[in-house]
Amino acid sequence: MMTTVDEARRIIRESVPRLPGRYQSLSCLQGRVLAEDVVAPMSMPRFTNAAMDGFALRHSDIAGADPEAPVTLRVIAEVAAGTVPGEQVRPGTCVQIMTGAPMPDGADTVIPFEQTSGFNTGEVEIFSVPKKGANIRHAGEEAEQGELLLNRGSVLTPGEIAVLAAFGIAGAVASDQPRIALITVGSELRLPGEPLDGAAEIYNSNSSMMEALSRAWGIEPILLRHVPDDREALRSELSSALASSDILVTAGGISTGEYDYVQELLREAGVIPCFWTVAQKPGKPLYFGLTGDGRPVFALPGNPVSAITCFIEYVVPALCLMQGRMVPEMVTALLEEPFPSDRKRHRFLPGTVREEGGRLMCGVSRKVESHMITALAGANAIIEAPPSPEPVPAGTPVTCSLLPWQFFSSAATPS
User: Fold this and answer.
1) What's 102's DSSP letter?
2) Residue 147 to residues 44, 255, 375: CA-CA distances in angstroms?
């Protein structure tokens, strides 16, 4: 009996282990996922400081100042960023101050130098009156010491890394990227660029596709191999991949044909099957298992659209779970045209999601068979619908998985 799509997703969700976290320096954290909460080791800002270049002064000293009747103050000191004020501001005086420099005692406002007669004089004329407390960054106004900065499970992008660096945090405990091994299978396949010598040979698109998919989620494959339909050669490659990876993904050789050895050899290698064949179209011959120590193994069908669909819908969530990151959310969009559903199987089709009048609309590719790889060109989503004896009518809300390598606004909007 075939596994349902919902059941397959549940099994993966409950089976895939999270990789352990380890301390990593800032330079290694891009794309990693935090394995612990990070709290502020100090307040930010650490001290009250000037938000711009100008003069630190007492607001009460400049009441009524304007270009026709400026107020003149005596400049008693200069405070640059990184230096500590040595003078206290008293009535009738001010301090020339640079952005980021600590506020001197006695001052409660900073006026920008553009609203004055300028720097480097013993006296300065003030031509306007800002609000009291203007242009000052107060200690702790962004974050107090001990405040939560980043949650466990946060994906570390340049923004999060900048936050860590700003608080003097040189590294953090984060999950490693999963070591993914990719293997394609089939004697009929040739690499792009090679000549097709026989009338029955075709090019291997799955290898390049799975490599690119891994990189689209920030993961560099540690092993990328193609193996002919040869039991011993495949046994050797599977053994090597299982020994070196956190997750193994194969494409091809998983059906029930005479030369489909993948499932047999995975069983010999000690992989415990969790399910095989899913009630879906495309991608019915999908295999998922676990090694003895719990590492996930996926065997995808060889048809290109089947392979990419299964990778996006099943392998990607597993990669996210291994890192402790949130599985990509799906969106709901309204069908622009009827969806060609299947009577017995959950159906996935490449398509396009776009925004129109504040609503998400979607349409599937015109090419709907699992061998039609050109259906993927320009698609920005995988659109799905449960089994139905009739096409799903236009206007029906359906679930869509957005593809992260497409920019929604440009890819989804007709030219």
Assistant:
1) B
2) 10, 54, 49
pLDDT digits (tens, 9 = 90+) for 248-298: 999 999 887 666 799 999 999 999 999 999 999 999 999 999 999 999 999
Task: Residue 301: name the closest of 327, 281, 316, 272 by CA.
Answer: 281
Q: Which residues of 54-89 are buried (b: 16+ CB within 10 A; e: fewer)?
A: bbbbbbebbeebeeeebbebebbbbbeeeeebeeeb
What is the SS3 assignment for 296? Answer: strand
pLDDT tens readout for residues 304-345? 999 999 999 999 999 999 999 888 889 999 999 999 999 999
What is d(CA 240, CA 309) in angstroms, rounded to the nearest whole number? 26
Which amino acid belongs to residue 408? F
* pLDDT band for position 407 (cuts 50, 70, 90): low
Sheet holding 180-185, edge to edge: 223-227, 180-185, 247-251, 296-300, 287-290, 272-276
Question: Which DSSP letter does residue 373 get?
Answer: G
DSSP secondary structure letters along 318-343: HHHHHHTPPPPPPEEEEESS-B---S
- Signed CA dihedral, 91, 96, 99, 102: sign only: negative
Distances (CA, A) of 401 to 315, 317, 352, 362, 383: 13, 11, 10, 11, 7
Strand partners, 24: 172
Asked whether the predicted pLDDT for residue 415 surpasses 50, the reply is no
Query: Which residues make beta-bridge pairs with 25?
Result: 171
Please answer whether residues 412 and 336 qualify as being in contact, where contact means their C-beta atoms are separated by less than 8 angstroms: no
pTM over 0.90: no
Cα(177)–Cα(35) distance, integer angstroms: 12
Q: What is the pLDDT of residue 276?
A: 95
**In this structure, is the dihedral angle defined by the CA atoms of residues 222, 226, 227 and 229, taken in order, positive or negative?**
positive
